[in-house]
Specification:
- The chain folds into 2 domains: 181 residues, inorganic pyrophosphatase (n-terminal core), CATH 3.90.1640.10; 114 residues, DHHA2 domain (Diaminopimelate Epimerase, Chain A, domain 1).
- It has 11 helices and 11 strands.
- By secondary structure, the protein is α/β, with parallel strands linked by helices.
- The protein has a 6-stranded parallel β-sheet. Strands 7-8-9-10-11 form a 5-stranded mixed β-sheet, with helices on both faces.
- Strand 9 and strand 10 form a beta hairpin.
- The structure holds manganese (II) ion.
- The site of manganese (II) ion has 6 residues, from loops.
- It comes from Candidatus Brennerbacteria bacterium RIFOXYD1_FULL_41_16.
- Pfam families: DHH (PF01368), DHHA2 (PF02833).
């Protein structure tokens, strides 16, 4: 059996790619199964309820000896289910800058800098002259819209736009669908803020410091640093301890307004992130708003330079 999967606790892009690519592999006559490990976020839950069709199975534990794997939306062995042996991975699709494909010695890789991995999977359908089912089309379209913040993030390119337009034809969605999707992922409150932040947390070690960027991409982002300020402080502190992080920042992107809010809880993080963001105005416990969408992956290389 070929298992198709993304990273632990996948986002909508990872889920959509797993579902759709296993469908394509099946259409091409090979048995394949979409699986995931970990937990799912609000966005995935929304599309799952919208379609009432979720052809992907939660897996935990060992796989049979002859199992093979295809990874989508991930190319880092540290981010996948530890039961998956890197040498059993036969194919990888990812759209990240930092990749670790050399660790997967038997994998054919497609790593392309597009806004969403779903774009790469849609291009596979086109290449094989296949059309996704309505269900797979809804997942793929939703993944591109979500990953590119409705085609607004700086890494969105023409391939994402073309892929989304092509797949939307098979998805037959209501005209307010994108608003529904963004509203669903914005239902953050005191009960789920910590989970949402830990689910979209990127940890990277730069110059011996473990750095965490906790991200939310939702509507009305200012609410998180005002109404939910105490919960935000607590969540960042809890994550810092749990993950043994040296520097931590909250990065909130407002998907409607197109701006970004940063928030820190300690002096050292403020100082380093201020340098990376080229601002004088980042102070602990005070939100800093920047009037454009800033992506996490554009901050990481700047941190490297800021930490000399
Ligand atoms: Mn992705």
């Amino acid at each position: 059996m070929i298992y198709i999967t993304a990273y632990n606790s996948p986002d909508l892009d990872g889920i959509a790619c797993s579902i759709a690519y296993s469908e394509l592999i099946n259409k091409l006559g090979k048995p394949a199964k979409a699986i995931y490990s970990g937990d799912l976020g609000l966005e995935v839950e929304f599309v799952k309820n919208f379609t009432n069709n979720f052809p992907i199975e939660k897996r935990a534990g060992l796989f049979e000896g002859d199992a093979q794997f295809i990874l989508v939306d991930v190319s880092n062995p540290d981010d996948i289910d530890p039961n998956i042996k890197p040498e059993k991975v036969i194919e990888i699709f990812d759209h990240r800058e930092l990749v670790f494909t050399e660790k997967f010695i038997n994998a054919q890789t497609t790593i392309e800098r597009v806004g969403s991995c779903a774009t790469l999977i849609i291009e596979q359908f086109k290449e094989h002259n296949q059309t996704p089912s309505q269900n797979a089309a809804v997942y793929l379209y939703s993944a591109i819209v979500s990953n590119t913040t409705n085609f607004k993030t700086p890494d969105t390119n023409q391939r994402d736009i073309d892929a989304a337009e092509w797949v939307r034809g098979s998805a037959s969605l209501p005209s307010d669908y994108v608003n529904q999707l963004f509203a669903a992922k914005s239902k953050i409150d005191t009960t789920n803020l910590y989970f949402a932040l830990s689910q979209d947390l990127k940890i990277q070690t730069i110059k011996d410091k473990k750095i965490g960027i906790a991200q939310l991409e939702i509507t009305n982002i200012e609410r998180i640093t005002t109404d939910l300020k105490n919960e935000l402080e607590n969540a960042l502190f809890k994550i810092k301890i749990a993950e043994q992080i040296d520097l931590i920042i909250f990065q909130g992107v407002d998907v409607i307004e197109g701006n970004t809010i940063f928030y820190t809880i300690d002096e050292e993080s403020s100082t380093i992130f201020a340098k990376a963001l080229e601002t004088q105005d980042l102070r602990p416990h005070a939100p800093l708003k920047i009037n454009k969408i800033i992506l996490r992956k554009s901050i990481l290389p700047k941190l490297d330079r800021a930490m000399i």
